[in-house]
Amino acid sequence: MRVQVRKIGVKILVRGEKGYILILALLVLVVVGLISGPVLSYMVSGLRAGHIFETGAAELYAADAGVEDAVWKIQHPDEAGYLPCSAGNPPRLYNITDVNGRSVQVSIESVYAVENMTFIYRVLSTATSNGSGTEIEAYVNGVNEYGDYAGLLSQIVTTQGIIDEQGKQYLNYTPGHEPVENYNGPWPTPRELKDFYWQDVKSKTPYTSGTIDIDGVDTTKGPLYRNGTLEIKNSSNTPATLTLNGTLYITGDTLIGTTGKDFTLDLKGNTIFVGSNTTGSQKALWIGTKVSIKGPGCIIAVGDIYFEPKAQVTTEPVFVLSVVGQTLLQPGGNIYGAVAGSVEVQLQPNTHLAYPTGGFGDLNFLAGIQRLAYSIDTWKVSRL
Asked: Do 328 and 347 touch, CB atoms closer than 8 A?
């Protein structure tokens, strides 16, 4: 009987839950119906937003490419064609087609310029497609890191101070290349020259010896960096030539041909740059009687330069420059080229100086060379 009762109880229990699956199904349908609308709407909004974002990103990248192209043109004016060089000049307008499938219009406008040294350009780059667009407005600031000092090569003697002529001089030049005192044109700074010539030697291992002794053997040197003083000489009775194959950059006081035996220094179109600013009796660069110098090339020191008697510069033109000090040419020296000194150029009796009839040609000097450094100071993005 107990077993029978239990069976009846189970049947009654099962009959009591008939239809609960239907109720659950209806509940699920109601819930799905309630949330499916917002979910579908969210998905559609997401797809639209994704498309808009993708479109906006493509336009942004296209407009950015327009700005980069404008900066390149500003940095390469010789290849870019017309560029406005001062405020008020008409802007440079041009189009770039098919950048990420977009058309880009670029405007380059000069808003500020000072003596060919500092520039500010307003660049407007607009990328458009299918009725939408992205515009970037950028202000590009440019600074000439190096000036153009070709004017120093135009006169046989140039100085910001005085020319001290002591006795009879022998200066050979054509009209237009006369000696110039109180020169007020552009003059290089030590920082400019140090940076310019450092580019030639910065990858070189420093030269550890304080002496370059060719010892009667034809020798080639350069590019060479010496952090300290340096003496260049020939200690042998055998004549020999030291030929430069790049810039010699020396930070300390330098002696060339002041002891030992005669030798020839062939610049071969290169430059000796002495970064020392020594002035007075010591001199930054001392060129003695035991060397003949062949050009073309440059001999430059920040401080004083001293040519002793019989120091010769022959064959091809050489430019000699003391950046902040004096250039002193002692009796009997012969120089084919031009000489410049900031404080003074002193010409001792019987100095022979001839300006090159064909000019200087291509020297490793800041003549006609300008390196422009640019930065983007402001950047504004707008959706059209």
From this structure: no
Where do we find the tokens 């709407």?
41
Residue among 181, 178, 163, 179 at smallest CA distance from 347: 163
Cα dist from 287 to 218, 232, 359, whole Å: 20, 10, 24
- Closest by CA to 296, choosing from 364, 219, 224, is 364
* Closest residue by Cα to residue 299 from 235, 234, 247: 247
Both tokens of 330, joined, read 């002692």
What single-letter DSSP state applies at residue 357?
A: T
The CB density around residue 306, as the number of other CB atoms within 10 Å, is 23
Q: How far is it, in rounded angstroms, from Cα 231 to Cα 236?
A: 15
pLDDT tens-digit series, residues 332-381: 778 899 999 999 999 988 888 999 988 888 899 998 766 667 778 778 88
Percent of the chain with pLDDT over 70: 84
The model's pLDDT over 55-71, given as tens digits with 9 standing for 90+, comes to 567 888 888 999 999 98
Closest listed residue to residue 183, CA positions, set 315, 339, 79, 287:
339
